[in-house]
Specification:
single chain; 135 residues; Rossmann fold; three-stranded parallel sheet; two-stranded parallel sheet; globular
Length: 135
């Protein structure tokens, strides 16, 4: 099973000063699983990287996606329906996080690699009682 990563983890991997950097880096480096993320996460990560760390770091991330170091998952028609349901049920999540939930459910993934314990710990996915939040 691949690892589904969210914005916070992808950002933390790039920012050595981020509180999650060491934990995220160690977790990803010791995992043999592929990293995947909804395509909706990519603009959010790019924005943060560009604004906080500069255009060169943003470009490095784009190239990592180009090399399939992080595989972007397109949203299906059913995902869009589920995103709207999740946003209605958990208004504090917002669009990007709701898309993470939708893709995780579609792929039947039990774990999320995230820095966002506050929001994702409240979600009750359709296929498991709760997500296992890593690292």
């Amino acid at each position: 099973m691949p690892l589904l990563v969210d914005t916070g983890i992808l950002y933390a991997l790039a920012d050595a000063d981020d509180a999650w950097h060491a934990r995220a880096k160690k977790f990803v480096e010791t995992s043999i699983k592929a990293l995947i993320t909804p395509i909706t996460v990519l603009p959010e990560v790019c924005y943060l990287l560009h604004q906080r760390l500069g255009p060169e770091v943003e470009l490095q991330f784009v190239n990592a996606v180009r090399r399939s170091e992080v595989v972007a998952q397109e949203l299906t028609a059913a995902d869009w329906v589920r995103v709207a349901e999740v946003m209605k049920q958990y208004p504090e999540l917002g669009f990007v996080d709701a898309s993470v939930v939708s893709v995780a459910e579609r792929l039947r993934l039990k774990a999320l690699v995230t820095t966002d314990r506050r929001h994702f710990s409240k979600v009750r996915p359709k296929h498991v009682k709760a997500f296992r939040l890593l690292p």
